[in-house]
Amino acid sequence: MIRPLLPLLIASSLQAQVLPGTQPLEPNADFSATMVAGIDKIALRLIEKSKEGRKPTREKLRAALGMVDARLPITALELVGDTSAPALLAETATARILRVRWPVFEGVHGEGILIQPKDKPVARVIYIPDADTDPEKLANDAMLAYSGCEIVIPALISRGSEFSTNGKFGVKTNIPHREWIYRQSYELGRHIIGYEVQKMLSLVDYFSAQPKLPLLVAGLGEGGLLAMYSGAIDERISSVYVWGCFEPREGVWAEPIYRNVFGLLRDFGDAEVASLIAPRPMVVQNLGFPNVQGPPEAKQGERNIAAPGKITKPGLAAVQAEVARAKALAPGDWLMLATEEHGLKEVVTHLLPKEIAEQLVKTIEPVMPQKNEQRARVDSTRQKRLVRELENFTQRLLVSTELERKAQFWDKLPLKSVADFEKHTAAERERFWNEVIGRLPDPNLPVNAKSRFVRETDKVSIYEVTMDVWDDVFAWGWLCLPKDLKPGEKRPVVVCQHGLEGIPEDTITTDETQKAYAPYKAFTLRLAEQGFITFAPHNPYRGKDAFRTLQRKLNPLGLTLYSVINGQHQRILEWLKAQPFTQPGKIAFYGLSYGGKSAMRTPAVLTDYCLSICSGDFNEWVRKCVSTDMPMSYIHTHEYEIWEWNMGRTFNYAEMAALIAPRPFMVERGHNDGVGVDEWVNYEFAKVRRLYNKLLIGERTTIEHFDGPHTIHGVGTFEFLKEKLEWK
C-alpha cells in the first residue's frame, strides 16, 4: 500500500534523501504553474528579440499567409441579383451601385459592391471594410462616390457566429466565422487572412487587365490589415491607405486567434510589412480601430469554446514608434502618419498623383443621398455564402493534401534497405523539427539536477527530480526505482507521459478516489513494479488558458509548445542516460492522450528514445483537426491551441511514425475511446504497418485494440516493452 504524501521534509532529513549526484530539491506547491510561468518568460524574451535581424520578403509573407493556391483567371465582375433583389442597388446622376462577385478559387468567390462612375474613371479603389461592417454601409457613406473613382467594396468573413456550426450533428458554437475558417485552414497550411488577401488580389488581376489607372487599396480595421498585406505582396497596387490596424505587432498573441500567423514575427512586424510597400505611397490613419473584447457570447444551446482575444486601440506613441521603424527600414517620404489634425486633402494628395488628387478634392461631395430609396440594401444571404464557400474549399483540401504528402514523402522513401531508409529520413526528421514543430537551441544550462524522496511502496521508491534546461525553463518529473535494483545493475527505462491537465503523480497514484487515477491506472508505478526504471515527466499542457497562451506566443515565432517540450526531453534523456542504474540504449516512451500526442512528436525527433507507444491518441490526425463532419473533431472543442501550421501538407501520424521507424512503434486503442473511431485509426495505422513490412521489420510494429474507453490498458503494451527492451 502506498503511504500518504510525506509532509515537507526538514533540511537535515532532505539532505539524506536525495539521489546520488543531485542536489536537495525544495518542495514546490505547484511545479506545473512555475514551469508555465518560466516558459512564458522565455517566450516574451524571444518575441522582443525577434525585432533583431528580420529580413522581410514578399515570398516569405506569401508563405506565412498560406497563399499557395493559384487564383482563377478573371475577365469580368459578375452581377449578383434576382427578381426579388436586383443587382442594381442605387443610382445617382454620376454613378451606379451594383452587387457583384468574382471568381477566386474553384467554388470560392469574392463578393461586394461596385460603385461604377458613368464617366470614364480617374482612378480605381479597393475599399475594404472592417469584418463587422457591411459593404453597403461604406457604399452609402463613401465620400469618393461622386469623385469619378471606380470602387469595389468587398465583403469580409465576419466576427459573428451564426454559421459556425455543422448542422449534421447539431453542434452550434460561439466561434466567430473568422475563427471557424482559421480552425479548418491552419492545419492545412492556409489562413483566413491569406484567403481574403487572395480575394483582394483577384480584384487587382481584374483591374490590371483594364486601361491603366492608379489603384489605391484602402481598408478599415480588419480590412486595413488586408490592405497592408495586399500592398506589400502585390506591386501592381499604386498606394495603400490603412485605418485602425497599424501598430507594433509583437502583441499579436493577445489579438483574436484568426490573426495568429505562424512564424510572422521572425521576419515581420507592421513596420517590415510596410517596408515592402515602399517607395509607393502609404498613409496610416491612427483612427478606426475595432473595439473587439472577445468572441461573441455563447447563446443558449451553443458551445462556449471560442478562443479569447481582443483588439484595442494602441497608444499614439507606440504607433509613431512603429512608423519610425518602417521609415528606418525604407528611408524616404513615402509613409505618412495621419491623425485627427490631418484633413482629407492632405491624405489624398499623398496617396494619388497630383493632377488626380487635385481633381478629387474639388469634386468630392460629403455623402451619398440619404433618401431610403437611394441607399444600398444589405444582402442578408451573402455572409452564409462566404463562410460556406471557404469551408467547402478547405474540406476538399483533406483529399488533395493527403495526395501531396504521398508525393512529397512516401513516394520518395528508399525501401530497399533500412540503412538507406534511415539516411533519407534523417533529413525529413530535421524538416519536421525545424519547420513544423519549431526548434529551439539545445539546452544550454548545466543540468543542475535536484531531487527529493517522495514516498515508497513495498516494491518501489519514488523521487521527485528537476533539471535546468534554459533560463527560467526546467524539466520536472517523478522517478520510480524498483527496490530490488542491485548496486551496479543497469535496467531499461520507460518514460511515462501524462495527458492534458495532468501531472506526474497522476500516472503513479493508486488512490481510486482521485479522478485523475482512472485513465492512467498507475502505469508508471505498475511498470516499475515489474522491474523497469520509470520516469514520469511533466509536459506543460496544464492550466487551461495559461498554457494555451504559450502556444499563442510561440506560434508567431515559428515555434510550438513542443519546441519547448522537446528541449525538456533532450535534457531528461541526457540525465537518464548518465545515471548508474539505466541502460542508455534502452529508454522507451509511453504516453496516453496528450501524452500519446507527445509519443508521436517527441520520439520522432529525439532518436535516443529507442521505441514509442502511443495510447489513446493515434488518429487520422489531420482529419480530426480539420473535418467539420466528424463529431469528435477539434473544430468543435475548446482546445483552440491544438492546430499545428501546415501539418496536413507535411506530416500526419503515419509520417511521424515513419520518422520513429525503424525503432519499434505500437498503438494502444480502446474501441470506445471517443478521441477517434476505429476505422480512421486503422486507416492511418495501415500505412505504418505497410512501411515496416516493406522494410522487412514488420515485427517491430503493432496495434492492440481492447474493449474499453480512453485509458491505459497495459496488457499488450507491457508485453511489447518486455519484448523490445529484452526485460524478463
UniProtKB/TrEMBL annotation:
Enzyme class (EC, first level): hydrolase
Gene3D superfamilies: alpha/beta hydrolase
SUPFAM superfamilies tied to this protein: alpha/beta-Hydrolases
Sorted UniProt keywords: Hydrolase
EC number(s) stated in the UniProt entry for this protein: 3.4.-.-
Name of one Pfam family that matches: Abhydrolase_7
Molecular function GO labels: hydrolase activity
Keyword flag NAD: no
Matching InterPro entries: AB_hydrolase_fold, Abhydrolase_bac, FrsA_esterase
Protein name: Alpha/beta hydrolase family protein
Species in which this protein is naturally found: Prosthecobacter fluviatilis
